[in-house]
Amino acid sequence: MVGTGYSEFGNFLIKRSGFTDIKPSIDGEADLYVIGKGKVVLSAKALLPGKAVSAQSYTSIGSMEKPLIAGIVQYRQPASGLDPEKYVSVLLVIDPATSSVLKETEVLRDDTEFGVAKNLTGSNGNVVSFYFNAPQNDDGITRAYDAMSGKMLWERPGFTTASVTGAVALQSVGPGFNSGGDPCYKATGVDIATGKDLWNVNYIDVARGCSNINIGWTSKGGMTVGRAVGMKYVHVSGEQDSNFNALTGAAVTLPDQVASVDPLSSLVAGSPAHAYIDSAPLIVTDAASGDEKFTLDAERVKQLNAQVEALHGGKLYLKTTDQHPVVDIATGKTIEDNAKRYPICVVRQRTYWSDGMLEPTTK
After folding, report:
1. Which of 360, 274, 357, 346 is CA-nearest to residue 311?
2. What's the chain's Rg over C-alpha atoms?
3. CA distances in angstroms from 287 to 266, 291, 362, listed in the order given
4. What is the pTM of this model?
5. For residue 215, how many other CB atoms are within 10 A of its CB?
6. What angle do CA 191, 344, 220 make, to 5 degrees?
7. Which of 111, 202, 210, 227 is the least buried, fewest Cβ under 10 Å from its Cβ?
8. Residue 165 phi/psi, 5° resolution?
9. Residue 161: is it exposed, middle or buried by C-beta count within 10 angstroms (0-12/13-18/19+)?
10. d(Cα 117, Cα 295) in Å, to the nearest integer?
11. DSSP string covering 149-214, please?
12. Residue 307 above 80 pLDDT?
């Protein structure tokens, strides 16, 4: 029994406070659940005792067999003699099983605390990426490091967003200019381990104000900028909306409004309607092929007040006015009238459930 309130965090579960949309990093102290270990608290003050910590961020790295945490901690280095204060950022490799630092590498040094690493993103290896504000580039600089060796692997202009474990969406200055003379932007999916492009979208439409673009995901609450779709897909809103598999770069088809993403297949549940429409059909689509696999018509959705709790292993978990039915997407049949729980996420071949249980994953 893990307990409730956790969400996916690479090879771990994590308790989040405040804004709860999933992403592959966390800022500030964090409560983890480590499979085989139990609950672990990530705290920069404990990891680097004696340092005047001013910022901390963590992400998951390592393999399923040897899961690790990467952290970037910024601390204030006091003035000494005629040398003014500095703010130093170090990249840490942390073994959560022992709460020990395995490697420490200085990655940034700045005159102010605003020179800090942002959007730390990990991988299923040792590579991490982050961006930071740089005087030589108004839009920031993105870097990738092998956290275990401390070696910088690549560097590119621009800032990252809509990240998943292993890949980021990089926004940087593109080839065109708008009517006011400001540069248009381009968006590029980047494999952080290799630095190679996965997909590209350029913005050169002067009439639409090309410098204003959004990368994120759409939900019934509207556009959520800077978040990948269910930690799996990237939605790019620009001259023409585009959707990609974040890790492979393959083009995919997503509903206008996404309700849930199946972690075990390419199925996505959502609606073709805009957020301000009260009632719309609920559709399950195969993102890879674009085929509709299941539809609950708008009138039935309204009558049932149907809401998606989860999509997992080809099964759709719903909440209605009176029950929690489970639908098998392959047959369109209700296989359970009133489920007592629904799946939250999959971590290291285990499914975390709404009742706090962590069990082997089965489709």
Report:
1. 346
2. 22
3. 5, 8, 21
4. 0.91
5. 24
6. 80
7. 111
8. -60, 110
9. buried
10. 44
11. TTEEEEEEESEEEEEETTEEEEEEEEEEE-TTSPEEEEEEEEETTT--EEEEEE---GGG-TT--E
12. yes
Q: Which amino acid is at 334?
A: T
Q: How many angstroms separate the CA atoms of 361 and 363, rounded?
A: 7
Q: How many separate helices (H) and strands (E) can be counted in the chain?
A: 2, 32
| Phi/psi at 347 (5° precision) | -135, 120
For residue 247, give every residue at least 6 positions away whose Cβ sits within 8 Å of its Cβ, in sequence order, or none: 164, 166, 167, 191, 198, 232
- Rounded CA-CA distance 76/251 in Å is 44
Cα separation of 111 and 140, whole Å? 16
pLDDT, tens digit, for every residue of 34-44?
A: 999 999 999 99
Kindly state the tokens that stand for 341.
């729980």
The span from the CA of 111 to the CA of 98, in Å, is 34
Name the amino acid, one letter, at 169.
A
**Regarding beta strands 307-312 and 315-319, do their DSSP bridges make them parallel or antiparallel, or are they unpaired?**
antiparallel
Q: Which two tokens stand for residue 118?
A: 């942002």
Strands (E) located in 255-362: 257-261, 267-271, 282-286, 292-296, 307-312, 315-319, 326-328, 333-336, 343-347, 350-353, 358-360
CB burial class (10 A; 0-12, 13-18, 19+) of residue 363? exposed
Do residues 117 and 108 lie in contact, with contact meaning Cβ atoms separated by under 8 Å? Answer: yes
Which residues partner with 326 through β-bridges? 317, 336
CB 353 within 8 A of CB 347: no
Of 108, 112, 24, 97, give the one whose Cα is nearest residue 73.
108
